[in-house]
Amino acid sequence: MNHQNKISVAILLPVYNRIQYTKRSLEDLKTNIPNAKDCLFHIVLIDDGSSDGTTDWVRTNYPSVHILKGYGNLWWSGAINKGAGYAKEKLNADYLLLWNNDIVVDPSYFLKLAKIARKNDKNTITGSKIYVKESPGTVWSVGGYFHPKTGKLGMHGYFKKDMEEYSKVFHADWLTGMGTLIPVNVIDAIGYWDNVHFPQYHGDSDFTYRAKLKGYNIVVDPDLVLFNSTTSSGIEHAGNLKKLFKLFTDIRSKSNFKRNFKFYQLHATSIRAYIPFILLYVRIFLGFFKWKVFNLFGIHKR
């Protein structure tokens, strides 16, 4: 099969420092991509102002990787937008594949992905079945759910033991920003990622949920297996009031109040949908003060 007949897939890899992860990720991709003969894969690395020599190292060791530069203000959604625009306009890619530098790929991943890309119609966005790297047999995600009337929001299979239900093609409401295969034509229908309201968290869920509302099929294919490292838990308050405030305001925090509220504001269809949103912050507050009281009695959280 010549290049003209091959499906073109651009792997979008946003990075900021953590060069050791990027080195492992590129080696992982180099080892496994050649298994897929009937797809043309382009790695598009978006370096958002790394200070650890990432760009120079990649240029020297992986000259075929397309490198785009940011200045530390792209965040995740901005980096994906930059990579997607480049893949669409310069590489004429058929698909975008969202990637992280801290995931590990199953050896048959790209072979199976190539088959899925060839058989899928352009109305389907396909996610990967993601396991917890540190806990064999434990699922991290088979896609996400959001109920606009009740406000229930989360991921299917989150830290649950694998089961038969997750071994079939699974329909979801939204998908994560790792191992998600997106036809480029989706951008023409719904626009790019919302880097204004969701520069970091909810960038992935908002984009794929908007695609679902436009009639695209959002599925997880269990043949696409990835392993996600969950040892980095992000920002925590650690019993400190200043850190609690940071938990609610920092762009890097999953508990960022403004971003979470905006997601509900854009997608909830009833007042009661805000109840889970409110309860989330009530639980965080109660947990914070509960451990303050326990600490007075010498009881400390492990």
What does this molecule look like?
There is one protein chain. Strands 5, 6, 7, 10, 11 and 13 form a six-stranded mixed sheet that branches. The chain has nine helices and 13 strands. It folds into two domains: 3-228, Spore Coat Polysaccharide Biosynthesis Protein SpsA, Chain A (Alpha-Beta Complex); 241-296, no CATH class. The protein is an alpha/beta fold and 302 residues long.
Structure summary:
This protein has helices at residues 19-32, 54-61, 75-89, 109-119, 185-190, 203-213, 241-249, 257-267, 275-296; strands spanning 7-15, 39-48, 66-70, 95-98, 103-105, 124-132, 138-141, 144-146, 153-155, 160-161, 170-171, 180-183, 217-228.
Task: Identify the notable features of this structure and list them briefly.
302 residues, alpha/beta, Spore Coat Polysaccharide Biosynthesis Protein SpsA, Chain A, 6-stranded mixed beta sheet, 9 helices, 35% helix, globular
